[in-house]
Write a structure and sequence with these properties.
Layout lengths: L12 H19 L2 E2 H8 L3 H14 L2 E6 L11 E5 L5 E7 L3 E8 L4 E8 L7 H12 L7 E8 L2 E3 L4 E5 L4 E4 L1 H9 L3 E5 H12 L8 E6 L3 E7 L2 E3 L18 H4 L10 H6 L1 H15 L13 H9 L3 H25 L3 E5 L6 H15 L5 E4 L6 H13 L9
Parallel strand pairs: 4-7, 7-11, 12-15, 15-16
Antiparallel strand pairs: 1-3, 2-3, 4-5, 5-6, 8-9, 9-10, 12-13, 13-14
């Protein structure tokens, strides 16, 4: 293979230089600690060019010299080895929920350096979100280079221009979030669906680490899904891929299901999401006069339904079992469609993983032609903000962009 250097592209020297820097950084992150000669051998970039560009990356603070490697077969001087400087820059991950928002400053290794939470912005405007982010950023060390923000919103997003097309939980429609925040914060902003960010986070630092085909499903107020296919986030033609909460898991519903009382939720969410389970309990009590301690609960939650099922309450047990059947059917359908290595389950209802996981694993093993691992998410509430950091590092224009 012919060695490449900046002279190979006389009309685009800067573009080629940037490309070579990224390739070198990718190699260092994957192989660290690694010598310059090893980088040249792996990338097919000439040793002179590797030496020049690594010197620049050292001066810019992206990498550091960490020690000496092994000498060659002929002996001689041991080479200096290089690693990524994880604190060369920080990135901001923001996870906007229906009620609360979390923002975190992370280094290039995805380590959370600082984190804060505050109320999600009202439907009337974004001023409160901007003010909270401005205050959070003002607390950071002024010497630290911040290269961008990755933001997740609970709905359909258009990543190309950073528009939140629809986020019912926030009352948002066609909100140009990227443009508005970049104008106020003066930093690059990348916008994504919140479950997609959680999937990126779990694939980088959590239960999907090292996997290239991953389904991330969050089960809470709604049911969302993020898809990592062949190592790439799959968004679909309209940014709406993974709306698993709208999956129909009952044949009769095709002709008969109309549910204006539960507007805003899809069929699977109405059966297996938190509010859907609570509503079913209420309906059973009201319609049949069912005897259950849950009758006395004023503000019943899905958590209380699961706790009642653990105690053997017949009504709660029936509702949980029915919800699990629908949820398992949806997961099986997703597994059959995408053939993942692993299915990661997260979200508020995974606090009851002891009831959910055995049934789902058994159903997938019995009914799916393939048997992926079924795991609980590892990052908890940090998945979205770490995923936001990952999004910035994949998309930004700095030399570090595209490295993870």
């Amino acid at each position: 293979m012919r060695k490449r250097n900046a002279k190979d592209a006389p009309h685009q020297p800067q573009a080629l230089k940037q490309m070579n820097k990224r390739l070198i950084l990718q190699t260092i992150r994957r192989r660290q600690p690694v010598s310059r000669s090893e980088i040249a051998d792996e990338t097919a970039i000439s040793r002179t060019t590797v030496s020049q560009l690594t010197d620049e990356l050292l001066q810019e603070g992206w990498i550091r010299e960490v020690g000496q490697g092994l000498s060659g077969t002929k002996g001689g001087r041991k080479p200096i080895t290089l690693s990524i400087n994880d604190d060369a820059a920080w990135v901001v991950g923001v996870d906007i929920g229906g009620c609360g928002t979390t923002a975190a400053l992370c280094n290039l290794a995805g380590q959370v350096k600082s984190i804060t939470s505050f109320s999600s912005p009202p439907t009337s405007g974004l001023d409160s979100l901007v003010e909270q982010l401005e205050h959070f950023l003002s607390q950071a060390d002024p010497e630290v280079r911040i290269i961008g923000l990755g933001i997740g919103a609970p709905g359909i997003t258009r990543s190309a221009d950073g528009v939140v097309v629809s986020a019912p939980a926030l009352g948002w429609t066609d909100v140009p979030l990227k443009r508005l925040l970049e104008e106020r914060l003066g930093l690059p902003v990348y916008v994504e669906n919140d479950v997609n960010l959680a999937a990126l986070g779990e694939c980088w630092k959590g239960a999907g680490k090292g996997k290239r085909n991953v389904i991330m499903i969050t089960i809470g107020t709604g049911i969302g899904c993020g898809l990592i296919l062949d190592g790439t986030l799959y968004r679909g033609s309209r940014g709406a891929a993974g709306e698993i909460g709208s999956m129909v898991t009952e044949a009769d519903a095709v002709d008969h299901w109309t549910d204006p009382v539960f507007a805003g939720f899809g069929f699977l969410e109405s059966k297996a999401g938190g509010p859907g389970m609570v509503r079913q309990i209420r309906e059973r009590i009201d319609e049949a006069g069912a005897s259950s301690p849950l009758r006395r609960a004023r503000n019943l939650t899905a958590k209380e339904v699961f706790e009642a099922a653990r105690r053997g309450d017949p009504l709660a047990t029936s509702i949980v079992s029915e919800s699990l059947r629908h949820l398992a059917a949806g997961i099986i359908n997703a597994v059959v469609l995408f053939d993942p290595e692993v299915v990661i389950l997260g979200g508020g209802l995974m606090g009851s993983a002891d009831l959910l996981l055995p049934k789902i694993r058994e159903a997938v093993d019995r009914l799916s032609p393939t048997r992926p691992e079924i795991r609980s998410a590892l990052l908890g509430d940090d998945a979205g903000v770490i995923g936001g950091a990952a999004l910035v590092l994949k998309e930004c224009d700095d030399p570090i962009g595209g490295v993870i």
